[in-house]
Design a protein that fits this description.
Length: about 260
């Protein structure tokens, strides 16, 4: 007799696969629209209005435009990725990293468009630097890579549906953003910013992997473990500090490489 999925898994599968993404999306639209209207229509400082416009640009380009293209062409992309003659354990983190680099290209572009949004570069920003290489090497993607490696390990052991991977990594990203500013969690759109980095790679995994379904306790583990994964960067810290010195980066926020 086949074993039935445990109760938490059934609830999680039914609710998230069919509804939770839509619920978060609807919530994000309502909250972001309200916040944007209140700030843009107020006498708030120019740099605050510019930040709102940058965030709206990120949502429009990365979430709505790129996210829609990912979903629309997910099957052809999956077929293409699966034909690449490499182990999926290599393709998955590489694909995630490429998408993270693409997402950061959008955010850094928004930061550099500060004058168009009514502020000076450095007064309004949504990235740690206006320099793309500085941002991805010392602040963002360099931290995401260990997270993707941790997810590679979990996906080697457990069969997570792509929608679950999207939501779980989205929650991890939301918590990471909240650690920098507690109000970041209010928008809800961070689920999509981070989730889109990993959804398509998860969707492109081979279907014949003989692995077990995750139990309920694995779900909180896969949310928390990536937050601790940057410790994996310790062996390459001397190299990163050397690159930091020779590149002489200028950041808008404090960095651990100082």
């Amino acid at each position: 007799m086949a074993k039935k999925d445990n109760f938490p898994n059934r609830i999680f599968s039914r609710f998230t696969a069919s509804g939770l993404v839509k619920v978060i999306g609807t919530y994000s639209i309502l909250v972001i629209s309200l916040i944007s209207f209140l700030i843009l229509m107020s006498d708030a400082p120019a740099h605050e209005k510019a930040i709102i416009k940058m965030a709206l640009g990120l949502i429009l380009i990365w979430i709505i435009l790129v996210g829609s293209l990912m979903y629309r062409f997910r099957d052809p992309i999956r077929d293409l990725i699966q034909r690449i003659p490499l182990p999926w354990q290599v393709k998955f983190p590489l694909f995630c990293t490429i998408l993270a680099l693409l997402e950061e290209a959008v955010t850094v572009s928004m930061t550099n468009l500060a004058p168009l949004f009514g502020a000076e570069i450095g007064q309004a920003f949504i990235t740690a630097s206006a320099n793309y290489l500085h941002t991805v090497l010392f602040h963002s993607v360099i931290v995401f890579i260990p997270m993707f490696l941790v997810w590679t390990i979990f996906l080697h052991c457990f069969d997570f549906p792509p929608a679950h991977v999207f939501l779980l990594f989205g929650l991890t990203g939301s918590l990471a953003e909240m650690s920098m500013s507690p109000t970041n969690i209010l928008g809800g759109f961070w689920f999509f910013v981070y989730g889109l980095m990993i959804f398509l790679p998860a969707y492109s995994l081979p279907e014949n992997r003989k692995i077990r379904k995750p139990k309920w306790w694995v779900y909180p583990l896969v949310v928390a473990a990536p937050l601790l994964s940057p410790i994996l960067l310790l062996p390459v810290t001397p190299l990163l500090r050397y690159l930091w010195r020779i590149m002489d980066p200028i950041f808008f926020v404090e960095s651990s490489w100082n």
